[in-house]
Structures are given as C-alpha cells and as structure tokens.
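Board notes (copied after class):
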Amino acid sequence: METLELKTTTTEEVFDHHFRALLNNDIDEIMKGYTDESEIWTTEGTIRGIDAISSFFTYVFTVLPKGTQFGVKQKIVSDGKAFIVWNAVNSMISIPTGADTFLIEDGKILLQTVATHIVSR
C-alpha cells in the first residue's frame, strides 16, 4: 500500500484529520497520517508499518462502525504531541474509557498508543 500525502502540517490539524477519518470509518484518510515507519502500541503489542496499521484500522472499524457514538473527555495538543481520553458506545460494545497518545512530526503520526476498556453489550 502506498503512502498518501496529508496536506496538513500542525499537530492539531493532523490529529483532527485522524479523528474525523476515524468517525467516518475512512481507511484511505486514516492512512494519510501514517508512514511505513509509523508504529501503534496497544495492549496486544506493537503494530508497525502501513500494511499492518491498515489492517488494524480495518479491524477497529468492525468494532467501532460508522454511527458509533463518541465522547471526548479530554484533549491536549502541544509541540508534536496529542493526547485524547474518550468514550464510545454502539449496539455491540461500550468503551467507558479509551485513551490515545500521538507523536506527530512533519505532518505524520510516528507513534500512537492506544488503551481501551471494552465491555460487550
């Protein structure tokens, strides 16, 4: 999978683009924020590179399909870093608390960490 260009440069623009793409289950837009050197750290382990990250978000969209209700509890963006605490609910699951941290450089997400508490409904 080739890396697509994201036409934003500030940390907040990259983060906001990522979050909108997540809400829309738009894999093409999500992937514009990553490179083959990007990593996502989860409680299940490390995900590296474009293909693995694309597969990860394809799975995420099955758990958090379009129409999932999201809430933002806290958002902090500063100097190439972003942190968000959120919640989500749909007919299959409830996530009372989720947290992601991003390290963003030159318009790309170099590192994202993800932690969630998922409850089946």
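Comment from the instructor: The chain has one domain: 11-120. The chain is about 25% helix and 50% strand.
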